């Protein structure tokens, strides 16, 4: 009689195997890069550096995906309504994770590439957007006034005969 394995146990084993393989892959890539550098193999070093960089970019994707940020598109049409949304979006597009990812993409442009690479430091925290309170809109000094309306003209009255 065989040993029965539940679906959750099978999935847990698969997850552990995946995580082990993933960790080993990073180690293999790092070792391959170091070997290429020590052997002064420009093509292998550049190719491996790009693979490491691409993996780092892929791992950081989840930090900058806009749907993960919880942004809700405002329904209004005025600038004031959109100001909070645009400010929050600006934080996401100019934050630490964006600068980190830009530095990763710029690695091949570094002086000394592929033998001397200055790897960017991964931001230490997950992107958290702080809601920004829009500045209050000042009340208008004078409310708009409707244009004057001429009073209706009464039709002429027929004289009584």
Please, could you describe this protein's structure?
With 161 residues, the protein is mostly helical. It starts with 6 loop residues before the first helix and ends in a 56-residue tail after the last helix. The mean pLDDT is 79. Helices cover 50% and strands 0% of the residues. The chain contains 4 helices and no strands. It has a domain at 12-109. Helix 2 packs antiparallel against helix 4. Pfam families: Phage_tail_APC. It comes from Blautia caccae. Residues 46-123 form the Phage tail assembly chaperone-like domain.
Could you give a short description of this structure?
Helix content is 50%, strand content 0%.
Described by strand count, sense and barrel closure, the largest sheet is: none
Q: How would the global form be characterised?
A: elongated
Proportion of strand residues: under 5%
Mean residue pLDDT: 79
Structural class: mainly alpha
Strand count: 0
* Integer-rounded radius of gyration: 32 Å
The helix content is: 40-55%
Number of helices: 4
Protein name: Phage tail assembly chaperone
Biased composition (Pro residues): 134-161
Region (Disordered): 130-161
Domain Phage tail assembly chaperone-like: 46-123
What structural keywords apply?
mainly alpha, 161 residues
Which secondary structure elements does this structure contain, and how are they paired or packed?
Layout: H1 7-38, H2 42-64, H3 79-93, H4 96-105
Helix pairs in contact: 1-2, 2-4
């Amino acid at each position: 009689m065989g040993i029965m394995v539940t679906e959750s146990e099978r999935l847990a084993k698969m997850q552990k195997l995946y995580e082990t393989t993933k960790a080993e892959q990073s180690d293999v890539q790092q070792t391959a890069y170091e070997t290429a550098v020590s052997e002064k193999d420009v093509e292998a070093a550049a190719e491996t550096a790009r693979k490491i960089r691409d993996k780092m970019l892929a791992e950081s994707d989840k930090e900058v995906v806009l749907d993960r940020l919880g942004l809700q598109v405002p329904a209004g049409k005025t600038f004031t309504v959109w100001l909070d949304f645009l400010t929050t979006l600006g934080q996401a597009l100019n934050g630490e994770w964006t600068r980190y990812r830009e530095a990763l993409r710029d690695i091949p442009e570094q002086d000394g590439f592929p033998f001397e690479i200055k790897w960017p430091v991964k931001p230490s925290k997950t992107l958290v957007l702080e809601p920004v309170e829009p500045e209050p809109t000042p009340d208008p000094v004078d409310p708009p006034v409707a244009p004057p309306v001429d009073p209706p003209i009464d039709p002429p009255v027929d004289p009584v005969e």
